[in-house]
Design brief:
The complex is a heterodimer of chains A (about 170) and B (about 290). Chain A is about 80% helix and about 0% strand. Chain A is mainly α and about 170 residues long. Chain A is globular, with a radius of gyration of 16 Å. The chains are: A mainly alpha (about 170), B alpha+beta (about 290).
């Protein structure tokens, strides 16, 4: 239950941080994708089902506010959560390389799919331009955001796990 | 838990493949439904209207406070360098000054909005504050703190600082999404004010980064349109009210077909620093089917 509440709060916090707080304080044009971070982290830290659920709700939240149709981003985030959940078996809290790599790859793939379905299908074929001006900057700022946010998510997750184990005995 | 002896009453868990399968179908169905109808839009938008938007509204004011503090710090720092002996006094005065200045800026901004109000006097308008921006980096949309309850409807025009900002593309009970005209998925039918030649203004990501909007399909056989000409929304647009200022022509080049021209225009609105907008509640008259 506590884990559920904390996850829901995490989703809400990243949405707010991404849409309402960061644009006010950071003088940059491209913003990190915190929803991807929270989806991927819940995937590889816990299990597929958690990743899928978190991803679904992150995407749905985004769709309701900014999506042209409801469901497109929800579907994308769901798959991000699922695929990251596949790595929960090889995840060790001490290792930061795997999370960084997974989140970066997730964001890159997500952006590429967005480009294909939102831009390429409308005949906007200048891929190098979009790659250099949107996809790459977003991946880089997301990587930086991961370095700052991931330790917090990890701490909360570890605390929850220890608490869970104590209750089981 | 031992792997062999399953505890009685262990919670049933759905295999992840099945969950994924179900959600895939749910998402696809939602996509098809929301593309065809807007039956689902309303409940979803109401839910987020009560779950998320109040936070965003709160953050909007906190964000204002933060950026205010940031300005203060910057100003205080430069003054300290100049007058070390008057440090404390200057700091105190600066703080006071900044607060007053902020009031002044707000006053100016409101005065500008008021002037704009007079310019487009014949329309009824509602003022709104921007509370969040599109979290993706592809399109340019934002959320404002007024919604259905304030009489907003989809396709209402949004203006600020002397020109057209965009149109309302989604409404919740207490919030609304505005798609800016610089967004990659936005097209506006416009015309030159002087010669009344029609053209299409298309927002694009590329133009957004360069601070311009592209236009195309301008028929100008008499070579009358010059850089600096005003572009306004056209009479034939089905979503935008006629005569709203979009921007000024920057460059103009003939197309390969030698019939039409295209080029760039500078938007009348400073999209980087938008905080308050006006929504025109009058809508373009459309022919009922």
């Amino acid at each position: 239950m506590l884990s559920f509440i904390l996850t829901a709060l995490g989703i809400l916090a990243s949405m707010l941080l991404q849409t309402a707080i960061l644009p006010g304080i950071l003088p940059i044009r491209v913003f990190p994708n915190l929803l991807i971070i929270i989806t991927a982290a819940n995937g590889f830290m816990k299990e597929e089902n958690v990743g899928i659920t978190v991803g679904f709700f992150c995407g749905l939240l985004y769709d309701v506010f900014f999506g042209e149709v409801i469901g497109f981003h929800a579907l994308l985030y769901t798959y991000v959560g699922f695929l990251n959940g596949k790595f929960s078996r090889v995840f060790y809290p001490e290792d930061i390389k795997l999370p960084l790599a997974l989140i970066t790859v997730s964001d890159l793939t997500y952006s590429l799919i967005c480009y294909v379905f939102l831009f390429l299908v409308w005949g906007k074929v200048e891929f190098p331009y979009y790659f250099l001006h949107v996809i790459l900057p977003e991946t880089i700022v997301t990587l930086i955001a991961t370095l700052l946010i991931y330790p917090i998510i990890l701490k909360v997750n570890e605390w929850l796990r220890i608490r869970q184990r104590r209750r089981e005995y | 838990m031992s792997p062999i002896v399953k505890r009685k009453g262990e919670r049933f868990t759905l295999p992840s493949k099945w969950l994924l399968f179900i959600l895939t179908i749910v998402c696809t169905a939602l996509m098809i439904f929301t593309f065809a109808t807007d039956v689902f839009d309303k409940p979803f938008r109401s839910i987020v209207g009560y779950a998320v938007v109040p936070f965003e509204k709160g953050i909007g004011s906190v964000g204002k406070w933060f950026s205010g503090r940031k300005d203060e710090l910057a100003q205080i720092r430069s003054l300290i360098k100049e007058n070390t002996e008057l440090k404390e006094q200057v700091a105190r005065l600066t703080e006071e000054n900044t607060l007053l200045q902020q009031d002044k800026y707000e006053l100016n901004k409101l005065r500008q909005l008021f002037e704009l109000d007079e310019q487009y006097e014949e329309y009824h308008k509602v003022g709104a504050r921007i509370i969040s921006r599109d979290s993706g980096n592809w399109y340019s949309a934002f959320v404002i703190d007024k919604g259905e309850k304030d009489g907003l409807k989809v396709d209402m025009n949004v203006i600020a600082g002397g020109g057209l900002v965009g149109r309302v593309s989604g409404v919740g009970p207490n919030w609304a999404r505005v798609t800016a005209i610089i967004s990659d998925n936005a097209n506006v039918s416009g015309m030159t004010l002087a010669t009344e030649d029609n053209l299409i203004v298309s927002g694009s990501l590329k133009g957004m980064n360069e601070g311009v909007i592209y236009f195309s399909k301008l028929v100008d056989s008499k070579e009358m349109v010059q850089p600096g000409d005003k572009i306004v929304t056209s009479d034939i647009s089905d979503k935008f009210l006629p005569g709203l200022l979009i921007g000024y022509v920057l460059t103009i080049t003939p197309d390969n077909n030698n019939l039409t021209k295209s080029g760039t225009l500078i938007p009348a609105v400073d999209f980087e620093h938008l905080s308050e907008v006006l929504i025109i509640t009058d809508q373009k008259q459309t022919i009922e089917e």
